[in-house]
Amino acid sequence: MGKLNGKVALITGGGTGIGAEFAKRFVEEGAKVVITGRRKELLEEVVAGLPAGSALAVSGDVSKLEDAQAMVDATVKFGGKIDILVNNAAVDPAATAVDITPEQWHKVLDINLTGPLFMMKSAIPYMIKNGGGSIINISSLAGVRCIPAMPAYTASKAGLIGLSQAIALDYGRNNIRCNVICPGAVATEMLRHAMTGFGKAIGTDADGALAVLTKFLPIARAAASDEMNGAAVFLASDESSYMTGSVMTLDGGACIVDPNGAACASAGANWGE
Questions:
Q1: Catalytic residue among 126, 153, 171, 242
Q2: pLDDT in tens, 84-114
Q3: Going from the N-terminus, what domains does the chain have, and what CATH number goes with each?
Q4: Is 242 a catalytic residue?
């Protein structure tokens, strides 16, 4: 018996990276899974690698309320209910506050913040009818610490934490829990793409850029996508039945790194010497 045996989950952004790994692990734990995203071919590749009848691909755009509702309706039709919602879909274009266009700003907030709202708005009535559920919102280290030249992404991920806690407060009495995972540097397609410019600036590739980015962390490397799975399964399962409104950072210890200490380490010295 898996930890998610008999449960039905919907995972947005399930065609690549963390979302695809969530889908695989949830199925292993006994859940039926619907994965969504804008690129149908990637979703179908993930489903094709899972046991027949365990997963379904549904294309759509989370920033459109009608698509969000259709994704949730398809999940209930596929599994008979919805127990788990994972809001993972996101975009992360870089631009400073001066450089960002209104269109870029709105796109990031529409997908990263309004999208989760639309998904929860669509799923919560079904969860109430079913007696409860677990919502897992994927924020970011950027939600608790700023990332340079990414004000829209930072604002959207910080906003998602606040939105999640509001949902936890409003729907706890309906046995609906809402928690947040804040990944740090995870070696996904999205992060590798984001590292391209940084890598060129320091004369290396995306892997070299990730190595530089993470060298001062207590766990001095980027995470693999599947290293987020354990936390997601825990939050999706009944093992976290008394946990809501919580924010889990899976960042290799980035939150405890002090820039002064990093400066000392880069010089090969210890604090106070």
A1: 153
A2: 999 999 998 889 999 999 999 999 999 999 9
A3: 8-187+224-255 (3.40.50.720)
A4: no
